[in-house]
Amino acid sequence: MKYFFILLYTLHSICSFAQMVDTESLFNYLFLDALKNKHKEQYNQALQSYSNCYKLDDKSSLIPFEISRLYLAANQYEEANLWIDRALANDTTHNTTYIKYATSLKIYFGMYENAKNLYLNLVTTEPEEPTHKLMLARLYSQLNKPDSAHMWLDRISTDRIPWLTIQLEHVDLYERELNPRKAEKVLYNILKHDQITAEPYIYLSKYYFKVKDDKKALKMLFKGLEKEKGELVLFDLADYYLSNKDIDSFKKYSLQACRSELLPANSKTEKIKFYLSYSIENKIFSNEDNFILNLINAAVEKDPDDEQLNYLLASYLSYIKENVKVISLMKKYLSNHNPDVNYYTLLIYTLLNADNPDWPYIEKVVDKGLNFYYTHNYLVLVKALCYNNQKDFSSSVTLLTKFFEDVDIDKSSNDKQSYVDLLNILAESYYYSGDTANCFSTYDKLLSLDTSNFLALNNYSYYLSLLGERLDEAEKMSRITVQAEPTNSTYLDTYAWVLFKKKQYSLSLIMIESAINCLKSESAEIREHYGDILSAMGRNEDAVVQWKIAYSLDTSKQYLLEKIDQ
After folding, report:
1. What is the pLDDT of residues 363-377, one digit of tens each?
2. Which end of the chain is more exposed for a tag (fewer CB within 10 A), N or C?
3. Integer-rounded Cα radius of gyration of the chain
4. Torsion of CA 377, 381, 384, 385, to 10 degrees
5. CA–CA gap between residue 42 and residue 28 (Å, rounded)
C-alpha cells in the first residue's frame, strides 16, 4: 500500500510538472505570436494573443504594458490608461519605462495629480535625472502651485540642463502668475550672464512684445542684431515691420534673413509661407512684384538641396502660373532624387493643366511615383485618367476596384474627398466600358457620401438621359447643378438634354441657348444638341446651321453629315 501512495504521489508530481511546462510553453508561444503580429501591424491579432497571455499570468506587468501600448496605437486612450494602471499595480521593481509611459497618458487625460505622484516616484528612483524635476515643476504649474514649481526648478542641476532653459521656465511661471515684474527681473538676470549672443535679447524682445511695449522690444532686437549670431533676430525684425505696415523695412530684413547662413532652412520655409499667405490676405504685393519669389530664391541659393524649399519654389511658380518653369524644375529634381510624394503630385497637376497635356509623359511620372507610393490616392486617380484617355476603360476599372479592395480609406476623414474623386472616375470608367449597372450603383454610393457633388450629379443625370432611363430622377439631379451654378455651360447643356429626352422642347431650347451664351470656348457637343433640339421643334434650317458648326469643331462626328443631308 505504501508503494501505491508513493506511485500516486510521483504521478501527481509528474502531471503537475507537465501542466507547468505546458502552461509556460503556451505563454511563450502566445507572447511570440503577439510580437510577430505586432511587427506585421496586425494589432487585433496581437491584442488577442497578449490577452490570452494575461489570462495565463495575471501577475505580469509586461503583458498589460504591451496591451496598453497596442491600445494607444489604436487611439483607444481610455483602454490604454486602464491597462497601464494594471501594469503599475503588478510592477514590484518600479520599472521607470512603465512609469514614464504612464505619466504621458495621465498628462494626456489632464490627470496632473496622478502624473505628479508618478514623477515623485521617478525622482526617488533616479535622483540624478534632471528631466524628472523639470517635469515635476511643469506639473506643479498645471496644478496652480507656483511655489512648488519654482522650488523644483531650483533643484535642477545646470550641468545636465542648460541654465538658460531653467531661467526661461521661471519666466513662463511668472507670466502664468501674472507677475510681469519678476519675469522681467529674471530676463535681465539672463542678460547679465550672457551679453555675447543674441538669444537673451530675443527672449527679452518677445517678453516686451507680449506686454505691449513695442518700443523696448524693438530696442532689444537691434541690440541683439549687434551681437554674435545676431542674424537670429532678422525674422523678428521683419515681423515687427510687417505688422506695422513698414513694407520697405520688412523687405530689407526678411531678405537678409533668407540669405542668412545661420537660420535653418525649415524656419525660412515656414516664414515665407506665412509672408505669402499674409500678403495674399492683405494684398500687400501686386502681381508684378516678385518679392516673394526673390525671398524663396534667396533661401534656395543658401540651401540648394533642401526639399522643402525646392517644393516651395515649385509651388509658388505654379501659383503665379509659371508652369513651364515648374515642369522644368520638377523634372530636374525628380531625375536626381526620390523625394516626397508631393513632388510627383505637383508635377502631375501642372502637366494636367497644360493646354495640351502630354499624356505619355504624365503616365511615365505617375508610374514612377506609384513605384514608391503605390497606394497614394491622387497617383492612382491619375493613372485611371491615363487609362481613360487611352480609352482603356477596363484597365481603369480593374485598377480602381483593386485599389478599393486593398486600401481602407477612412471616409470620415480628410480622405473623403479623395475617395469621392476616385468613385467619380470609377463610375465613368464603368459607363464607357459598357457596365451601366455598376456605373449607376457607384454613383449611388458616391452621392450617399456627398449629396452635393455636382460632377457626379451632372454625369449621372446625363448618362441616364442618354439611355432614356429614370428621366424624372435625372431632371431632379440636373436641376440641382444648374441652380448651384447657373452659368456653367456643361450643367446647362445636360439639363437641356434631359428636358429634350422628356420632350419638353420649349424649356429645353431656353436651357441650351443659355448654355451657348455661357460658353467660354466652343463645344461641338453643345452645338450638336442645339441642332437636335431645333430639329425636334421643326426648325430644320437653323438645326443644319448648328450641326455644321459642330462638324467644323469635330470632324470625327461623321454621322452629322447624314443629319445635314437629310
Report:
1. 998 988 888 888 788
2. N
3. 35
4. -160
5. 19
